[in-house]
Specification:
heterotrimer; A alpha+beta; B alpha+beta; C alpha/beta; A: alpha+beta; Mth169, Chain: A; 3-stranded antiparallel sheet; 2 helices; about 35% helix; about 30% strand; elongated; C: alpha/beta; Rossmann fold; 9-stranded mixed sheet; two-stranded antiparallel ribbon; 11 strands; about 25% helix
């Protein structure tokens, strides 16, 4: 069994209004060192199987078919093997 | 079981003794838990029921009065309207977004449970001073919670009101109202009739959320509760939308015997209330209830307040048909028990009986209390405050602009623009007028609706304040061209065990009852929210009135904005020297004192009837009720909405501040075409209504002339202040 | 002219669209349930507003993968008329029938208000009864309505005249102040390359009757009918 941890964020070129708002809020709280804030989504998927290569291919397929909108978003996948 | 477990579930010792007497034995832990929630004030109304008996509840058009999930009234053509208001104060004070969202979800379920399709939502909100960061957090959280749920379920939020006052600083009020439309034959009720009929639980799975929410709602908030943060439920509007569509579809099949939503006290309350109403029993196997979490105990399943669930009793043999409809909507529908003839609420876990209580013991046998009532000490002093000694102001124009920029009076656009008030394409009068009007498709009629309540009036005179709450709500309906039909009320008060609070409660209800009788608007349902206190400090007594009226012909729809140059402005009613309890006193002088304005219900009725008759005759161009901020603010609102000025003369021989900002009751400002003046005055004489021709519409400023004083403010300046005030504060 | 209104679980403007076609336009119309695979021979599809599948994940994302969408996509690619309103627009971009995407409003809040739009294109089946650069009033009601696309796509849309509506003021001026939600280039509605699929955030079905405060939206539907009767339907 694999656990895929997928982090989805807006592409750098896309305005991230939520991230900007949080950035502003942090600054107003006195965190002047905050350089940038990007908001995103965190998805965890438990996947049956024992072939890491195959699992990764499947997860990437899921990302491009549903989880991620490539027009505005980019993603990173972390795959870990877990005990059944 | 701990020896004093009864205490933990919120029961008193005498209640515990009574339970033993009813059961003729010691209750077990599960049974005590069930009694605890069902005998809480929230479910039983044990402290309030005797007082509520005063409300008139009948009229020829009332199809369903109090006691069901919602009241139902006839609106002709075989159609009916179901409506109800309910509080979700404590959850919202702790988690504003989810608290408000689930409040909306709960009241919408009450409406479609009756077989009506929800067509509109309203809300009445109270917060502390908007200058405080905490209020801003609660306010924006509550508004986005209402939006988040209401918008997603596709029911327009069409009207509401928001007041800001320090007494609500830590105990905000969130009262949500829902209005639904149905045909008479679709009326469904919460009856578990017909022994042998299967009992379904449908919708969301049961989780460990909100256990003891009903008990929580019946306690004061304190630092300890803030610490505990009891499980506030999270709502799923998408699930509720599916549940709504499926329930309405299943009711149309005719196979439903009874239906009830699961709100406070979950399966326990819906099951025992349905059985109790029908005089039957009900048997439930908790092992069959689909759960979201593993290892839930019978106790947890019975008391869970997971949202978006319904209990449905179906005709035996029609299980498959009903199941198919829920499957189509991707919803779970599970038979968890059946109706029995023995009057018992029997709970099994598989083979084992874990609780058995007569259904009526949980509902009707709950003791009722006549609490001690005592006039509070603050009252005589506050009422007796010498207002005559107050100085007059130098610049009334400045005062007017200040009042227009006071959050309680200012435009609530910041709030309602976050609500989808148009979905359904029925909203003829959107938020921002005296009341909302929705058309009924296929007919040339509409329904008008509004929520209203001024707690300062009630604080300074609960009886009069109660009368005014009803009168003003009805006046709002009249001003939009509707005939008020019936009300639902949400009574928000402090701890009823304090004699001063109970006195406020009793007086307010008596005043409301009297106004309902005179104005012919019975109470068809409502909700009581007591224990609104934080660390011993009660909120201002806040009875909220939700009202529904019928607009017989859409041509009668009237709004408040002045419309055209040269129209004549007429004030119906009498302006007295009454500054007491006014917003002017509070904002300008920092005083919450004086006498609540007088109200003569007969005069009120006359003014309302005359206005409606004139509207029906097609003589009224605009109509607006005078309320917070008095005549000057009301005139300003007519100008702002109409984007046009006015010239008026106010010649009463009383102090200018009272003329401009006093809140004398039973007053309506109308504007009429100048060619109709003779006809209108003739009618007003016929109705024997006191009136005064004030002046005319026109120009781009509001000019008010008195004897020896005047006000002159640009409409643009007033509009800016009025529209920007709340947004400015929220930008912080 | 036969219309079909696609209904997903969570749609909420389907009845409003149905009503306009049935009562105002007085043309035949039917609901098409998301689980169906049959478009019942309709001539124009309307993807209504609402919160299809709760708009969970992303607005329109799950709906764009539901069974009926395969047929909808094929219908659109063959030149069938499709009008996506609000959530419908979001679904069409997610399904790849229209370029770009719709993200959260600049205000981060849901916004329900009247907006003024400048009609940029009248040579489409959806806008033929408007005049070029006419200013019309149609309300918006959305939380994720800010149109975005990459630079190349935007340039193409501009160059090919595929921006059909832009947020403007009473004088028809397009400025940052007249932009309610932060949409790039004040875009309120766009059309696909072949000119048969229109997506727009404002709700024309909400202002198609005088009693609701405006009739400007009605002309989108009557344009469709005029276009159809003018030859396309024969």
């Amino acid at each position: 069994m694999f656990k895929a941890i997928i982090t989805i964020t807006f592409k750098k070129s896309i305005l991230d209004p939520q991230g900007n708002a949080v950035h502003k809020a942090l600054k107003s709280l006195g965190y002047e060192d905050v350089e940038d804030v990007r908001m995103g989504k965190h998805v965890e998927i438990l996947l049956r199987g024992d072939e890491p290569q195959e699992a990764e291919t499947k997860i990437k397929e899921m990302c491009s078919n549903l989880l991620v909108n490539p027009v505005i978003e980019e993603y990173q996948v972390e795959l870990v093997e877990v005990e059944v | 079981m701990k020896e004093d477990f009864w205490k933990e579930v919120g029961l008193s010792e005498s209640e515990y003794e009574l339970i033993k007497e009813i059961l003729q034995r010691e209750p077990n832990e599960v049974e005590l838990g069930m009694f605890g929630v069902m005998w809480s004030e929230h479910c039983s109304y044990k402290n309030s029921r005797n007082v509520l008996k005063q409300f008139p509840t009948e009229a020829p058009w009332v199809l369903q009065g109090p006691g069901e999930n919602a009241g139902v009234i006839d609106i002709g053509d075989g159609q009916a309207v179901a409506f109800k208001i309910e509080s979700h104060n404590h959850p919202s004070a702790i988690e504003p977004y989810q608290g408000a969202a689930t409040g909306v979800g709960g009241i919408i379920r009450d409406i479609f449970t009756m077989g009506a399709r929800p067509i509109a939502s309203l809300n009445s909100l109270r917060f502390g001073s908007l200058k405080s960061k905490k209020t801003q957090y609660l306010f924006s959280g509550v508004v986005s919670g209402i939006a988040g749920y209401g918008n997603r379920i596709g029911v327009p939020t069409v009207a509401g009101e928001v007041y800001f006052h320090p007494s609500y600083e830590d105990n905000c009020l969130v009262n949500a109202m829902s209005v639904g439309l149905m045909n008479h034959e679709e009326l469904a009720k919460g009856f578990a009739s017909g022994p042998g009929n299967p009992v379904f639980v449908v919708g969301a799975r049961t989780g460990r959320d909100g256990i003891h929410g009903a008990t929580f709602a019946s306690e004061e908030l304190s630092e300890a509760t803030e610490e505990k943060r009891p499980a506030v439920q999270a709502g799923d509007p998408f699930m509720e939308k599916l549940l709504m569509e499926a329930c309405l579809e299943v009711i149309k099949t005719g196979y439903v015997v009874g239906m009830q939503d699961m709100g406070a006290a979950g399966i326990t309350s819906s099951a025992c209330e349905m059985a109790s109403r029908a005089g039957t029993g009900i048997e439930i196997d908790v092992a069959k209830v689909p759960c979201r979490e593993e290892g839930m105990s019978a106790y947890e399943i019975l008391l869970s307040e997971s949202q978006e669930r319904m209990l449905i009793v179906v005709q035996k043999g029609k299980e498959k048909e009903v199941q198919d409809i829920f499957t189509k909507w991707d919803l779970e529908a599970t038979v968890i028990g059946q109706v029995t003839a023995d009057g018992q609420m029997t709970i099994r876990e598989g083979k084992e009986i874990v609780a058995q209580i007569p259904a009526k013991a949980l509902t009707e046998l709950c003791p009722r209390y006549d609490r001690e009532a005592k006039e509070p000490e603050y009252l005589a002093q506050a009422q007796g405050y010498d207002l005559a000694s107050l100085p007059e102001m130098e610049d009334y124009g400045k005062v007017l602009v200040t009042l227009l920029g006071t959050p309680t009076i200012a435009s609530k656009e910041w709030v309602y623009s976050q609500f989808d008030y148009m979905v359904g394409t029925n909203t003829v009068v959107p938020p921002g007028s005296d009341a909302a009007v929705l058309r009924i498709k296929g007919y040339n009629k509409g329904i008008a609706m509004k929520v209203d309540g001024n707690s300062r009036y009630v604080y300074l005179d609960p009886y009069r304040g109660g009368q005014i709450a009803v009168a003003e709500a009805a006046r709002n309906i009249i001003c939009t061209g509707g005939k008020p039909l019936a009300i639902t009320d949400c009574l928000n008060f402090g701890n009823p065990e304090k004699p001063e609070i109970f006195w406020q409660f009793k007086q307010a209800v008596a005043g409301m009852s009297e106004a309902c009788r005179v104005l012919g608007t019975p109470v068809v349902g409502g909700n009581v929210s007591l224990y609104n206190e934080t660390n011993g400090e009660a909120i201002y007594p806040t009875p909220i009135v939700g009202i529904v009226g019928l607009v017989e012909d859409l041509a009668h729809v009237t709004t408040l904005g002045f419309k055209q140059e040269e129209d004549i402005i007429i004030l119906l009613g009498i302006t007295k020297d009454e500054l007491g309890a006014s917003t002017y006193l509070s904002v300008i002088h920092g005083l919450e004192a004086g006498k609540t304005p007088e109200i003569d219900l007969e005069l009120e009725k006359q003014v309302q009837q005359a206005t409606l008759e004139l509207i029906k005759m097609g003589l009224v161009v605009s109509a607006h009720d005078c309320s917070e901020g008095g005549l000057a603010v009301a005139l300003a609102e007519c100008c702002i909405q109409g984007k046009i000025g006015a010239d008026v003369a106010l010649t009463e021989n009383i102090r200018p501040s009272s003329i401009l900002f006093g809140e004398s009751q039973s007053r309506i400002i109308i504007s009429i075409n100048k060619s109709k003046i003779d006809l209108v005055l003739q009618q007003l004489k016929k109705f024997q209504v006191p009136y005064k021709v004030l002046g005319s519409v026109g120009g781009d400023s509001l000019n008010i002339a008195g004897s020896g004083w005047k006000v002159n403010v640009d409409v643009a300046e007033m509009e800016e202040k009025y529209r920007e005030a709340i947004a400015c504060l929220m930008k912080g | 002219m036969k219309f079909g209104v696609v209904v997903f679980p969570g749609s909420s403007c389907e009845a409003d669209c149905y009503y306009i076609i049935d009562q105002i336009l007085q043309e035949p119309v039917s609901y098409l349930w998301h689980a169906e695979q049959d478009l019942r021979g309709v001539d124009c599809l309307i993807i209504p507003g609402g919160y299809a599948y709760g708009n969970y994940l992303r607005a329109g994302a799950i709906a764009s993968n539901s069974p009926i969408m395969e047929k909808v996509i094929a219908f659109g690619k063959k030149g069938g008329l499709i009008l996506g309103i609000c959530n419908g627009f979001q679904i069409l971009t997610e399904a790849g029938l229209l370029p770009g995407a719709l993200i959260k409003n600049r205000s981060l809040r849901f916004q329900c208000e009247n907006t003024l739009l400048r009609v940029e294109q009248t040579n489409t089946p959806f806008t033929s009864t408007y005049t070029q650069h006419e200013v019309i009033k149609i309300p918006i009601a959305h939380e994720e309505g800010a149109y975005v696309a990459d630079k190349e796509t935007l340039e193409r849309l501009e160059k090919e005249g595929r921006i059909v509506f832009r947020y403007c003021n009473e004088q028809g001026e397009i400025t940052p102040e007249t932009n309610p939600n932060g949409a790039l280039n004040n875009i309120a509605g766009i059309i696909n390359e072949q000119g048969n699929i229109l997506g727009m955030m404002p709700h024309p079905e909400r202002c198609a009757e005088a009693i609701l405060g405006g009739e400007d939206g009605e002309r989108i539907f009557s344009s469709l009918l005029a276009w159809w009767q003018g030859g396309a339907g024969r």
